[in-house]
Write a structure and sequence with these properties.
This protein has about 250 residues and is α/β, with parallel strands linked by helices. It contains eight helices and ten strands. It has helices at about 45-55, 70-75, 95-100, 115-120, 140-150, 170-180, 195, 220-230; strands spanning about 5-15, 20-30, 35-40, 60-65, 80, 155-160, 185-190, 205-210, 210, 250. The strands form two sheets. It has a six-stranded mixed sheet with strand order 5-6-7-3-8-9, sandwiched between helices. A four-stranded antiparallel sheet has the order 4-1-2-10. α4 (about 115-120) packs across α5 and α5 (about 140-150) packs parallel to α6. The radius of gyration is 18 Å and the shape is globular. The protein starts with 5 loop residues before the first strand and ends with a strand.
Length: about 250
């Protein structure tokens, strides 16, 4: 079987803010078509890693390649759903118009943009295109943001804790959607919901300044204690780390 192309390649990445290390010598390879959950404590560097992939921070050391390109061009191959999206509830914008924003400035031959209608249909909200964004539920708003990322046509999706503050039903629905999308795109999701996401993703990586994994391909108590600290760990249900990810930890 032909090995999938490298979608993301991070080598020896180190990032610091005001002299304080946030990422230390992080190396990561993610192949095209993979679905990876990135777990770790708050402040462990998950958002900074995403921002590095998008070329929004300047590393102290190391490199980032997106389908072989640097972040300046590679970011056009990424659809991003940030952790916090600020909007004015009084602003009269419709769900479809939020998705429309995705195509502004797109200039990548590898990305094939979707129409707004197609993107909303993909997330199950085709009938809500004209709905005022402020009237949507929290789960529906997150799906609109996913639709906006899909509308870019980018082959990679990054989602930074997309289920924060959602009710359990909305969380389940969003994860089911991502599992379906994971069959056609490369997805990395930063999350604390290890128990719920582990049965849907193909692999799990642990990040707390450095990238951790276990050679046996399993998330062990020892590993989780190293990442989260003794006595602080998520609840797991068949979570795993696949060596096929070629994670490297110096």
């Amino acid at each position: 079987m032909t090995e999938a192309a490298l979608a993301i390649e991070v080598e020896g990445l180190s990032v610091a803010y005001d002299g304080e290390a946030v990422l230390e010598n992080v190396s990561l390879r993610v192949r095209e078509g993979d679905f990876l959950a990135l777990i770790g404590p708050n402040g462990g560097g998950k958002t900074t890693l995403f921002r590095s992939l998008l070329g929004l921070v300047t590393p102290e050391a190391g490199s980032v390649r997106i389908f072989g390109q640097g972040p300046a061009l590679g970011r056009l191959l990424i659809g991003y759903v940030p952790q916090h999206v600020h909007f004015d509830p009084a602003f009269p914008i419709r769900a479809g118009e939020v998705v429309d924003m995705a195509r502004l400035g797109l200039k990548s031959a590898r990305a094939t943009p979707l129409s707004t209608g197609a993107a909303l249909e993909r997330v199950g909200l085709a009938d809500r295109a004209q709905a005022p964004f402020a009237t949507l539920s929290g789960g529906q708003r997150q799906k609109v943001f996913v639709a906006r990322a899909l509308a870019t046509g980018a082959p990679i999706l990054l989602l930074d804790e997309p289920t924060a503050h959602l009710d359990p039903g909305s969380v389940e629905s969003l994860y089911d959607l991502l599992a379906a999308l994971g069959r056609e795109r490369t997805i990395i999701i930063a999350t604390h919901d290890v128990g719920m996401i582990s049965k849907r993703v193909r692999s799990v990586a642990c990040l707390n300044r450095t990238l951790h994994f276990h050679e046996s391909g399993e998330l062990t108590d020892e590993l989780l204690s190293r990442v989260y600290g003794p006595g602080h760990r998520p609840i797991l249900h068949d979570a795993r780390v696949l060596q096929a990810h070629e994670h490297k930890h110096a």
